[in-house]
Amino acid sequence: MTASTLGRLFVDGALLTFLVGVVVQAVRIRRNTSGSSLGIAIVGLASTIAAVVVMQVALLTHNFDLSYVAENNATFTPTIYSMTGMWSALEGSILLWALLLAMLLVVVIIRYRRDAADRVVQWATLVFFAVAAFFVGLMAGPADPFVPNPLHSSQGAGPNALLQNNPLVAAHPPLLYAGFVGFTVPFVFAVAMLITGRVDERWPVRLRQWTVLAWGVLSVGIVLGAWWSYQVLGWGGFWGWDPVENAALLPWLTATAYVHSIIVQDRRGLFRVWNLSLAIATFALTILGTFFTRSGVLQSVHAFSSSTLGPILIAFFAITVGGGTALIAWRGDRLRSPVGVDAALSREGLFVANNILFVGFAIVVLVGTAFPLLYEAINGGQVTVGAPYFSKVSVPVGALVLSLMALAPLAGWRKTDRHVLWSRVRTSAWFALAVVVVTWLAGIHRPALLLAYFLAAAAAGSALRTLSGSVRSARQRGDHWLRGLLGPTAGGMVVHLGVVMLSLGIVSSTTLATKTEVALAKGQSTVVAGERITYLGLRDVHDELRDATELSVRVNGQSPLHPAITTFHGRDGQTVGTPAISSNFWRDVYLTFDAVGGTGTSSGAQVADDLPAGSVVLGVTVEPLLVWLWLGGLTIGFGSILSFVRRREDHK
Fold first, then answer.
1. pLDDT for residue 97
2. For the chain, how long is the longest CA-to-CA vector?
């Protein structure tokens, strides 16, 4: 049996299984009977895993009888990039999405097996089966990854050059998809609560764990994507407000609002409509993001494939939004909160401001991302929305978010006396002022940067104060102090510290960066922003995967770095720049091979006729504190795990 036939068999089996799950759940709901659908979910998962195994075996053995393998793999493709080829294009990405959905479905059914008779769980399981059937159905139809190759090729095109130039491609897309898939859980339960009318119970609060975990995974995925962009694209930046970047940011923003506002519902019974809307909107935005990135409607350096799935995805998005809106309108009478926000200067009042900021910014990003589509549809022309549009809003939003992070954890519920709040914030404020003074004495006098440092330090002080209180409480209970770091409060403060680190990395590296080009002959040195750059020579590298011209460059006498111009075999010989980076805790030195002197070269580099042969032009960018961005992202992920792992008393 061929890989095409076998793969299709498993995909069809998974689709049939998930459809059976929908029918079985519907029958149980209609007859008001209970039962577990775990067996059905496991069969669906097993079929999906089998399809993934068929695809991976085909990629690793270079089975070009599959069109997907022929288009995204080659005999000279290294093993790691052969495996990651499964999510290098649309069809394989849908297969990965289906796998993650099937796995999560099994986990959710196991987690709530004791509540199998609960109508909310039954409806949520039905909707979950339907979502899984939709994504598997895409593979059974227009996104079939197992189409046979009519050409019977002996060699494939290989992955896109940018997808075989850094191992982060093995982590970044799966984490993004895992985050997207994780938002299915709050969505299906929100729909279930609206259908059953049980919107005043604690289900939204119980589901905050799943949202926090999905949000944390997506956060790490986004940061790794920025790191991948920084290391591969050769422009020295990490975020360009590209449509694909925005597609991942949109659900992250609404999920951030959700995980904060659900706390208010837990403590005060507020924001029921708001929270259900955010749960539905976050899931819908993952679908819209898939439409943006995989339909080919928007041009992006990150979009490596396009398809005819656009109408199907946008229809599913419309059904999700329209159905969710209709359900919320239907249950509007039950969603009214019995109380309101008593005072603006209270924790719930500050959380309202937080929600307005994140959702408002999500709208700004959505408008900026979708505007080129709307403009083309109305006027027939093309227009782009660049970074300045987004930056005008993101900078003040970032400052306000840091301000709220400094105040909200220390504010009381219902109403906070200003003198009491000041007594709690005072230490953080003095600490932040000390940071500003030290920064000023270090020679940094830009008011905007000093303000950012002040707000970041104040937010960090607030988080540390809350964490220390949680640790003291754990010790007073007789627990080990590390148990004080578990739970949504302490975990959330670790996340806040990660956000502070990330903010410092972004602000410092973008504001204080030094970017220039230098022309150097062999053995010549120059100094850029206090960093000594020495050009040692160049060499040509040829192997089965690529042809490259590498420079040898020493930074401050350390081991040589090798920025290069690389031409990958396959796909008509794609040529890309390969930067080299010297990084430590305080700064990055980012080197690119921009040009070579002489009258001609086979390296693929730009030729500088006015320079003598053997000399080169180096792009040099020095960026302070950039490593804090990556460390902040990992800290956010760690804090999300701490929030997910609850103490025993949190379940009571």
1. 95
2. 85
Domains identified in the chain, total number: 3
With beta carbons less than 8 A apart as the criterion, state whether 599 and 185 touch: no
pLDDT of residue 388: 87
Please list the alpha-helical segments (H only) found in 408-480.
Answer: 418-441, 447-476
Using DSSP's 3-state secondary structure scheme, residue 351 falls into: helix
Residues in the chain, pLDDT under 70: 200-201, 294-307, 337-342, 377, 380, 572, 599-604, 646-652
Predicted pLDDT at 299: 57
Tell whether 542 is covered by a domain. yes
Q: Is the same domain home to 486 and 535?
A: no
Which residues constitute the domain of residue 455? 398-510
Within this chain, do residues 151 and 132 fall inside the same structural domain, yes or no?
yes
Domain for residue 201, yes or no? no
DSSP state of 412: P
What would the pLDDT profile of 219-251 be if each residue is shown by its tens digit? 999 999 999 999 988 888 888 888 888 889 999
Asked which of 159, 188, 220 is the last residue of a domain, the reply is 159
The last residue of a domain, from among 459, 476, 510? 510
Whether 344 is in a domain gets the answer no
149 shares its domain with 9: yes
pLDDT for the residue numbered 517:
93
- CA dist 268 and 611 (Å) reads 70
* Interatomic CA distance for residues 95 and 89, integer angstroms: 10
> Which phi and psi (to 5°) does residue 623 adopt?
-125, 110
**Confidence at residue 600, expressed as pLDDT on a 0 to 100 scale:** 54
Report whether 103 contacts 45 (CB < 8 A): yes
C-alpha to C-alpha distance for 276 and 120, rounded to whole angstroms: 14
How many angstroms separate the CA atoms of 597 and 601, rounded?
A: 9
Q: What is the pLDDT of residue 387?
A: 83
Q: Which two tokens stand for residue 211?
A: 């949202």
Put simply, whether the predicted model's pTM sits higher than 0.85 gets the answer yes
Of 426, 427, 429, 435, nearest to 453 (Cα)? 435
Residue 371 lies in a domain: no
Q: Are residues 525 and 436 in the same domain?
A: no
User: Identity (one letter) of the amino acid at 276?
Assistant: L
Same domain? 96 vs 138: yes
Residue 17: its H or E element:
helix 3-31
Kindly state whether residues 15 and 151 are assigned to the same domain: yes
